[in-house]
């Protein structure tokens, strides 16, 4: 069983140090557990392509020097490392209240729909049933392998308001792969790794996170247990970040994962969220992901002709490129 760490922060910085503590502790749990980590700011990604579904899927096993505009592309190696792992621990510093942008950049350019569990499930079922739409697809079966995960955020601030979007953002990096998050932690007031190591509390918490991940290795999404601190929040992401709809029935969504509920006054007189069991709209659940697949299919059908129909209109907007600020890198590339 292999645990992969994703380090989104400074080399040997605060979040990376906590990640290493967690990984080492997880490896100590059993001789069968192996560990490695990827330092995301070092991942080379050719900058010219568009992200997401318009991007070329990075071919697995492709030579990392395979040229897209003669630039090194580390994405096949990143994707391979993620698909090979049985558990993922994602660690990030808190930058401007959120996780580091490099994490989202690497995820957007490497993962996205290619590793969406519901998309892969649908493609496999489509191929088996002989659905012609999936004739030439090559779904990556390892996406559906059971995986657990954990999240670590570290920030210099001690206040909730300067750290509150870190875990919500970290969840977005793991849910498509249907990774079951079994623990999550925010280290506050740690502007550098020295502070994180100054007393036993944070290393001890990171060790607990590592042990929690190791204890759930190999378990399916349904079997794996959440072992992190209880927040009394959403049953899926366990966080307390909500969208209030302002309806007469006091409907709310979990802003992190989309679970639905309503505000109620609890027995103690405190306002709380009562989450509904159904519909399972949380993107963390397979049902939520399948609903999204249906939504995407409808949109694809409805918009199939619009690219051809609007060619002239789009040509006009392309002319606006003359206002683009010319960067030194573009000048260097042109010369
Ligand atoms: C651009 C930038 C923005 C930051 N914004 C926050 C913030 O909003 N909240 C916070 O708690 N810490 C913030 N910090 C402090 C870092 O989270 C802190 O120094 C952390 O230890 C860095 O982690 P690293 O060593 O893993 O990179 C910021 C640091 C930088 C450089």
TrEMBL record:
Record InterPro entries: Flavoprotein-like_sf, FMN_Rdtase-like_dom
Pfam families: FMN_red (PF03358)
Residue span(s) of domain NADPH-dependent FMN reductase-like: 1-124
SUPFAM superfamilies in the cross-refs: Flavoproteins
Name this polypeptide is given: Flavoprotein-like protein
Provenance organism: Aspergillus pseudoustus
Biological classification of the source: Eukaryota, Fungi, Dikarya, Ascomycota, Pezizomycotina
């Amino acid at each position: 069983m292999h645990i992969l760490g994703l380090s989104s922060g400074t080399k040997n910085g605060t979040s990376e140090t906590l990640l290493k503590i967690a990984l080492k502790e997880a490896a100590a749990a059993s001789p069968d557990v192996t560990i490695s980590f990827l330092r995301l700011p070092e991942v080379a990604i050719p900058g010219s392509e568009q992200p997401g579904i318009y991007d070329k899927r990075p071919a697995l096993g492709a030579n990392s020097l395979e040229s897209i505009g003669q630039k090194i592309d580390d994405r096949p190696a990143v994707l391979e490392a993620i698909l090979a792992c049985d558990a993922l621990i994602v660690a990030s510093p808190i930058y401007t209240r959120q996780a580091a942008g490099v994490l989202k950049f690497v995820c957007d350019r490497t993962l996205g729909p290619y590793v969406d569990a519901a998309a892969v499930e649908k493609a496999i079922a489509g191929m088996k049933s002989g659905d012609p739409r999936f004739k030439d697809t090559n779904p990556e079966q390892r996406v559906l392998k059971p995986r657990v995960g954990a999240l670590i955020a570290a920030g210099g601030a001690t206040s909730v308001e300067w750290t509150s979007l870190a875990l919500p953002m970290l969840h977005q990096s793991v849910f498509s792969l249907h990774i079951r998050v079994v623990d999550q932690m925010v280290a506050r007031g740690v502007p550098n790794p020295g502070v994180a190591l100054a007393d036993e509390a944070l290393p001890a918490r990171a060790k607990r996170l590592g042990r929690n991940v190791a204890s759930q290795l190999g378990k399916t999404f349904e079997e794996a247990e959440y072992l992190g601190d209880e927040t009394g929040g959403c049953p899926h992401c366990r966080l307390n970040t909500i969208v209030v709809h302002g309806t007469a029935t006091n409907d709310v969504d979990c802003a992190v994962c989309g679970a639905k509920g309503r505000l109620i006054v609890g027995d103690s007189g405190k306002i709380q969220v009562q989450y509904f069991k159904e519909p399972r709209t949380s993107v963390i659940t397979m049902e939520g992901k399948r609903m999204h697949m249906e939504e995407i299919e409808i949109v694809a059908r409805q918009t199939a002709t619009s690219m051809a129909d609007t060619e002239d209109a789009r040509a006009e907007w392309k002319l606006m490129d003359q206002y683009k600020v010319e960067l030194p890198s573009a000048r260097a590339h042109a010369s």
